[in-house]
Description:
Two copies of one chain form a homodimer. The first copy, chain A, contains eleven helices and 15 strands. In chain A, helix 4 (97-114) links the parallel strand 4 and strand 5. Chain A is globular and about 65 Å long. In chain A, 31% of the residues lie in helices and 27% in strands. Chain A is of the alpha+beta class. Chains A and B meet through helix 1, strand 2, strand 3, helix 3 and strand 4 of A and helix 1, strand 2, strand 3, helix 3 and strand 4 of B. Chains A, B: ATP binds at residues 121-122, 146, 211. Chains A, B: Catalyzes the ATP-dependent phosphorylation of thiamine-monophosphate (TMP) to form thiamine-pyrophosphate (TPP), the active form of vitamin B1. Chains A, B: Residues 151-294 form the PurM-like C-terminal domain.
Amino acid sequence: MGEFELIRTLFRPLAEATWQDGVVLGPGDDCAIQRVPPGHELVFSIDTLVAGVHFPAGYDPVRLGWRSLAAAVSDLAAMGADPVCYTLALTLPDADPGWAKSLVGGLEEASRAFGIALAGGDITRGPLTLTIQVHGTVPEGQAIRRSGARSGELVAVTGPLGGAAAALSWLEAASPPASAEGFLARYHRPQPRCELGRQLRGLATAAIDISDGLLADLGHILEASGVGAELEPGRVPRNFDGTQATLDQALNGGDDYELCVILPHSALEQLPGSVADSLWVVGKVCAGSGLRLMHADGVIEEVSVPMGYDHFRGQ
Amino acid sequence: MGEFELIRTLFRPLAEATWQDGVVLGPGDDCAIQRVPPGHELVFSIDTLVAGVHFPAGYDPVRLGWRSLAAAVSDLAAMGADPVCYTLALTLPDADPGWAKSLVGGLEEASRAFGIALAGGDITRGPLTLTIQVHGTVPEGQAIRRSGARSGELVAVTGPLGGAAAALSWLEAASPPASAEGFLARYHRPQPRCELGRQLRGLATAAIDISDGLLADLGHILEASGVGAELEPGRVPRNFDGTQATLDQALNGGDDYELCVILPHSALEQLPGSVADSLWVVGKVCAGSGLRLMHADGVIEEVSVPMGYDHFRGQ
Lengths: 315, 315
């Protein structure tokens, strides 16, 4: 057995340990097979993480496993989809069984936490890169898209923002201060909002996961929906275990994997208390276009929304 | 618009130009959406091609587009699945619009030829790598797996083998000899056997696409099915436009993307003439294990089938 064959065998138990009902055939054939329940649609997204670009080159493989899968599953949460399974295309510069076992450990923990099964994959030699495609299902026609926001509706977020950005400067520190711990937890172990996404089906008119920063990602919703918005920066939550991210980190920092959600006032009242308590209303949707920041001191700041809404982005 | 944003916009027309009915929502949201027809299952496979490992570093991008998609679709053909859509995760060292346009051109040509739509993707900066996940559908329970081969059945292949391996030494030649043209065509423009795969549903008991070489890939079927086989090397087709690949290339060369199919005698008789004419019977399945080559001079050669059938391989 070649050294890469050995690495491949490490992933077999992961597929077996995380099996989900929708998976008819897992790894080991030319293709995997999934059954989509009657009256449901398949929802899927592919994402690549490159060492040195999307995570530090020497990043801990257990954390890498969790974080890669969490970031991918977050796209399912934004559509209101229930996670089912995923494929992993892993490119490795060399066959290091210890490193691979740790990665499998992190993936297994995340797979169990999110209820998603490894259904197939490909392992090849090359620069360190992980590509994950996640599969979920939604009742037909109920996926929450980016394009449904309407004037008068509320803009909400599902948790504090800016933590992952605030963590960046501490990532490689041997002994980060206690005040950085909340930030670091957010970077290393993001929590995709699947349960919240599912409860927002039929109530939210648009949603996106915040991977590029609140302003940029809200901008994608505005472009796709053909509307504008007013945001109150003072209402954006940014407290992590008692330490605040800066306003810039909260508005522009990526990788938090909370959701930005648009919903009418009436929907907010229909939500169970536990769900409504997880939503911070931070602004409202307006007719027209553009994004305005309504600062507490009365200053109004125009934000340039990324031009040329890009249909090959954000999957 | 950043330079990578510009590259992303090149893929939008490709998604629109190749649209297929099963795609409910294409690129541009957090996820894409696919509808799987009632009574059908989703069949999917992910594959990565790394520059310098799976194709030459300076390989023509039009050819790269065709070849990458053809190799991926070949996995659907091996399951007897009908192609529907695919996602593309593309990692690029720099944003070269001319190169990207050529890649899109090759992908579009292949997408139309195979009837498969671009449904989503991700473009990131990093070492040149293409990861493609293809989606197809089959009537429930009718996918052709590797594990159904039974003693007494026939081993067949769907076309001449060894051409892509024979092409390798000519790939970077400025003016290859006319005798190499058949080989080069096979390397640059492999033709996945989707129509044949579909017609073999319910008739073939096992199939695999020949990406690692006939002996290795037949070995995967034998391992998965728990049987052995006798192969007659003299019957393996290896003629490309009048030039023969060597026997070693035909038995061990990869990247031809023909199918190796197992089927009972009776199934061969039920096939339409055009399909039966596309099958070369090269051996038979036996009880027990192992793969024996029955040479024309009476010599019997035992081939070591790769041990430890690997469930994380071949997707």
